[in-house]
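Standup notes
- HV: blocked on the assembly model, inputs below
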Amino acid sequence: MTGNLLSLAIWLPVVAGLVVLATGGDKNAPVARWLALIGALASFLVTIPLYTGFDSYHGGMQFEELKPWIEALNINYHLGVDGLSMFFVILNSFTTLMVVLAGWQVIEKRVAQYMAAFLIMSGLINGAFAALDAILFYVFFEAMLIPMYLIIGVWGGPRRVYASVKFFLYTLLGSLLTLVAFIYLYYQSGGSFDIASYHRLPLTMAAQTLLLVAFFFAFAVKVPMWPVHTWLPDAHVEAPTGGSMVLAAITLKLGAYGFLRFALPIAPDASREYAWVFVALSLVAVVYIGMVALVQTDMKKLVAYSSISHMGFVTLGFFMFGGVAGKELNAWAVEGALVQMISHGFVSAAMFFCIGVMYDRVHSRKIADYGGVANKMPIFAAFMMLFAMANSGLPATSGFAGEFMVVLGAVQVNFWYAVAAATTLIFGAAYTLWMYKRVIFGDVANENVAELKDVNAREFLVLAILAVAVLGMGLYPKPFTDVMHQSVNDLIWHVSQSKLPQLP
Amino acid sequence: MNWTSLNPWVATPEIFLLCAVCAILLLDLFISDAKRGVTYVLTLLTLLVTGVLVASGVSAPAEYGYSESFLVDPLSSYAKLTMIVGVALVLVYGRSYAKARGLYRGELFTLSMFSLLGMMVMASAVNFLTLYVGLELMSLSIYAMVALNRDSVASTEAAMKYFVLGALASGMLLYGMSMLYGATGSLDVFKVAAAIQSGAANQLLVVFGLVFVVTGLGFKFGAVPFHMWVPDVYQGAPTPMTQLISTAPKVAVLVLALRVLAQGLEGFAPDWRGMLMILAVLSIALGNLTAIAQSNIKRMLGYSTISHMGFVLLGLLVANVNGYAASFFYVVSYVLMGAAGFGILMLLSRAGFEAEQINDLKGLNQRSPWFALMMLFVMFSMAGIPVFLGFFAKLSVLKELVNMHLVWLAVFAVIFSLIGAFYYLRIVKVMYFDDAESHEPLQASLDAKVVLSVNCALLLVLGLMPNQLMSVLIDAVQRSIVVVAY
């Protein structure tokens, strides 16, 4: 059973998705919904043993599976998770469950296709996090674009076509260069697509630099880092609520994960050499995008920009080289960034869900169309208050833990990095709380708001689960950091070793 | 000539096919239009038997016949199997379409089988004259088929263009071959190779001949800058003929290229690599860029074929066995994708209505979710998105390019694949995001629907498990190209 847990985590949602798809037209929508819920719940439950059965003292891969897949090209079906990737498999399955609940009554047309797309995508994303073979990773990484493209395009807003095509082509551009990088590594490593063998491979500085550029294109677009972030606000604004939740909570993390799994260990010397580029771009994202978020009039766009800003924190944390002679990554920063990734998964999903709840009632995302929502929806307002606080990084919420650790790490490396990064605590609070004030507080602004009804049981359930997650992680992040500790240390040690070939 | 060197039964499948075509040709004279189904069934049976005959010899070692002008090796056998499948798919998908347009006549079946015979001869020919005879038999049959709808101005125009340019290309090829003959004193591929290797051949003359041969091949592949006929013929020809043109003959032309360039002119690889590189780069760039501007889907698929052939040429120009294998795998994958794409277009057409504008696919997801999904498979496979077959075809070509230190070509190909993805995505967009304008149910016979579904599903299944197909084809090419007699 534990032997193929990861396969189960990947294929169970895919199969469930196919079953849901088979229910056909909207006549059978209730069946499709229940099947999707059962499928998502089962898929979530099979990922729990990944945590309970995880050996925290072991930094290497666990739950490994290795079978030949395409022998002609030496591609293997090689799966495994370590402390860096394990949480994302669980987080992804969890988010999918939330998405199924979130779309329960809201999606009225082509319900089966909607649910199926999310379930299949969930399986593919799990595959990308668990893949230990470069081509296998690439296959999952690309294939998940297809359901996302359909989700944005079919169930999205008025400019959905533009947004979906932009999303697809932008992300494809980056990943195609990675494919060439993988093929190059295949020959350098003597005919292997095994990611671990790439980690050990000595590479010249020139080769590392080119590889880093290729990885940068793939993963920076996905994260997204400034200045290749422009697809994200469009995609978020047009995507249905569920699409935004998955996009923000999971797929962005895949980009950051790519840096940890590929860029840093495969090209450590180049990463060290050009860390300043990543730091600079991350700080631009944190500060500049934070300011951009301040002036948004569309709630979804605001949260989208806030995601970019928060993800800037993550990439900042990954490239904090300090220690002796600036060779070592800062452990606080890396772990903080990982915590921030998980936390942002919960918080951004919750924020998008909150906006979705209001949008379903008023059919507007404009801040100006709201005001005084608290008068009509007190329970909702309380929940959203919590999530807004978490988004601005208030202590005791999950948003605080990660950001604090990253800032702590940054201080050790360079005080001024930390100062710039810490401005997010101001900007984050400013744009989130200001939006919250304009939307929730005040007098009832118009008739639409006057007719609002508070959350129903289903919405309450989603909000409550997310609230527990946000608070739990903020109050007691130790279970999360414990698990990733050993893997992070291994990574830091690995990255500190030069991979340049020794001159004879 | 003696009886052993004749070895006539090495061509059993071709002989059977020829006899069967003649029999069907005669039989069809006595069959009324209402009973044309008999011809259809007999044709498919003939193809099946031919396929079985080819398949039975697939693992045998290479064997010569007809005084060493005819070679049956694994490469030719797998190429023939692919061609047979390609032609059979044309007939299955095209049946309802042809019926509705008065094309459902004996000529459709006999001509397509004659063209198949030509292709099969091409696949096995290792003598320039045999190659040329096969090529002409294939081409002339196809010219006639394009003009089959003789009352249609577009079709006759397409046929005329195709014929004139095709004849020109054949002339170029023949002229090039005659120069090679002059330089080496032989028409036999392997003797040409031996003459070049021994240094007896006139270098200048060979290079001249090579230029003409590559030009002729470029025409037949439809590679830029010899692609002018492709969009017009694709658009003008009746859709089954378009499907035929875009699938099986590409396999035959690839084998021809392998015979002449890889086996015959191996010693001049540095020269033809450069030429193919120009053709490939231009094809990929122009094919993908121009396809974006098309509103006619047949034309769009025409330009898309051009870019796919660019990828095939990329594999060829690697000029080693693995590169050839990658090209062969690519072209076989392309036959499956191309057939499925045109198959869906024919499924959407009905009497008096030609599905050939991109807008005709609008809202297909509402009309038929199943076939919308199938078309989605085809489009993503053509765009090279995993996990579909097309991705692994592209991957195997890119892999060989990087191995030959042609990373810049790989990056170039990859960037234009991205541009290519845009127009494939547009088809998906039209099918899924737009509302249907017509709610006519899809009219097609059950067999076409079933075969089409299997064909499209294969793109996914072979994408999930490409190992078998890939290793079989790679192995076939490796066993065949190494076999250098003399």
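- HV (later): unblocked. Chain B touches chain A through 35 residues (CB under 8 Å). The first helix of chain B runs from residue 3 to 6.
- Next: hand off to the docking folks.
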